[in-house]
Amino acid sequence: MTAELVRGQNHTLPQTRLEIRVSAGSPVVAGATLGDERGTVRGAEWIAHPASHRVPGLEVSRQAAADHRLAVDLDALPAEVHRVTVVLALPMGAGRPVSFGAVAAPFVAVTGLDGTEIATFTLTGLDTESAVSALELYRRQGAWKVRAVGQGYAAGLAGLFADQGVAEAAETAAAIQEAVASGLARSVTPPPRTTEGERVRHPAGPAAAGAQAPAPPVPEAQPAEPLGDPASARTEAPGGGPIDYAHPRRQTSAPPPPPPTAPPAAPGQPPRPVAGDATGWSMDERLYNQIWGMFEDLARAVAAYRSAVDFAESRMDQELDRALSDPRNRIGGAGDRAREAARAKRDELTGRAREALERDLAQLAAESAVVEPALPAAYAGWDNPVWHAYRVPMEIPMALRLGDLRLGEAPDLSIPLLVRLPLERGIWIDSGRTASETAASTTGDQLRGLAVETAVTLAARLLAVYPAGEFSVHVVDPAGSAAGQLSPLVGSGVLAGPPAAGAEGVASVLAHLTRRVDLVQMAIRAGAADALPPDLDTGEHLLIVNDFPHGFDDRAVTQLRYLADEGPSVGVHLLMVADREDARAYGPVLDPLWRSLLRITPVADDHLADPWVGHAWTYEPLRTPQGSRVLEQVLALVAEARRGGRR
């Protein structure tokens, strides 16, 4: 029976190999400290956190997330350790919650390796605290127990570490937050969940394999806070019309469930896949939510499979250790038989886990096969026939497809990477060398060229999904090195002006967009809509910056950082093509800029993390089919619609 603990209560632990599961109302940092008999943490090497996620007997998550799983082996802890404290903290950053009082109460569960709950604790009553000691696993008279702590610290991790005797508490806390900020920059943000009509999940991985049960029910997790909230950018245009950079059809109440569109499946068979089989106010919203449901299903199915395989390997090691600890089994055939039996059990568990994964993958592949052809242009790849019937839309779609995501266990199954519109943070296309095999076989010049081509296709998609005249694209190319790749945008006439070159051109474009951000922000704060100049373009703007930081002086760098931080909330978005190594001369001053942007690559690369379990996904950019002129045709229709709007 599960012990539901309250603050200060303890419970005996029946086993020493455990999992600690955390669910919170927003992304949190989950770590753990090791303490001696007096509870003192003797050094940084006794702290497990995202920048150093493993210590003897303990492993924690590598990034901030709404859900965590911490692995604990109490028998593997150093002999001096008598206490393990599970620590939660809020990640720092603009627009993020600053205290646990502003988010849903975190929920913590201690489970066995089979998923059986041993003890749970909900951390209620927190207010101004930004870090908290959630649970303690402590040794008493040779036995291990768990105690619900719930001790919060308004001073954050620094105060918590200082209380545990860490010598360099502030420095350690700062290093953790730096690692977390880097991880958050890798993570994509999920859509908000609805209060009803939740996507149905199906058993996967360890549960079917008999190795590890699925996670217990936990409170619903909400998505990470955006870096800039477009809903806050609302004022009135000089002519009296609204300037609202929130999506015009984004609803705040629960949408209706999907209409029945297919007959029920036969008994014992999985549900028949149907396009739009998710909640939503429109077909586009239902498809959007369905794709994110597929994304989460694949992430959790693979996590369950990997957990089952790890469990099978761990069990084999334990059985071998027990069998070979007896000297009599080390000679003759007894040792060989023990090894064969342990490996056979490992193979059996792994095979059952693989069978369960294959069933889940088959169901997701069938769903993908019906969803992909039904996608609207904003969600579709360039090879989708929907582009052949393209017309300039009258409304902004909910989201835009940036590329595809894959996992190694399912190389043939891709999940569209959708981001909500208007963009809630800028995008950085990394033109530098990465560790991926594709990048290693591509020259530096080729990578830079592919990066600009990726920026062009992304800008074209943005222009194509906005109504005519409601989206403008500016280009800064200081050295003119991207003239060839930019030709589709330049030749079609869809740009707001010729690509800016040289120091004067860079300064002029940045000054224009900075002035626009300043004026709209001042109008919002002062409530003075009539103070906006009559020539102010209240549509959305995208600035493409090529080859940063070449051609940028200190003032231009400051303006660029300002646009990245403040622009999205008032309709100015940043698309950078840059190699971070080239910006090293500026030192750490640009680190916040990189972290504020969503990094994508011009070739396949494993760098994006999902917001549920933190897998490293292979991102693949969208490419137009070889020999196709779909890009030019779409841009020509956009240019024609823009010219018609000006007449």
Average pLDDT confidence is 83
Q: Determine the N-to-C terminus distance.
A: 74 Å
E-strand count: 23
Strand content: 15-25%
So what's the oligomer here?
single chain
| Rg, nearest Å | 27 Å
Q: What kind of sheet is the major sheet?
A: 12 strands, mixed
- How does the overall form come out from the CA principal axes? globular
Q: What low-confidence regions span 5 or more consecutive residues with pLDDT below 50? A: 194-242
Helix count from the secondary structure assignment: 12
| Helix fraction bin | 25-40%
Backbone structural class: alpha+beta
Question: What would you note in describing this structure?
Answer:
By secondary structure, the chain is α+β, with helices and mostly antiparallel strands. The protein has helices spanning 156-163, 169-186, 206-209, 283-324, 333-371, 437-440, 444-465, 487-492, 502-526, 554-566, 591-596, 630-646; strands at residues 3-5, 10-12, 17-35, 47-48, 54-55, 58-59, 65-73, 83-89, 107-112, 117-122, 131-140, 143-153, 234-236, 242-244, 399-407, 410-420, 427-430, 471-476, 540-548, 572-578, 598-600, 605-609, 616-621. Strands 1, 2, 3, 4, 5, 6, 7, 8, 9, 10, 11 and 12 form a 12-stranded mixed beta sheet that branches. A 5-stranded parallel beta sheet has the order 18-19-20-17-21, sandwiched between helices. Helix 1 crosses helix 2, helix 7 crosses helix 12 and helix 9 packs parallel to helix 10. The protein is globular and about 85 Å long.
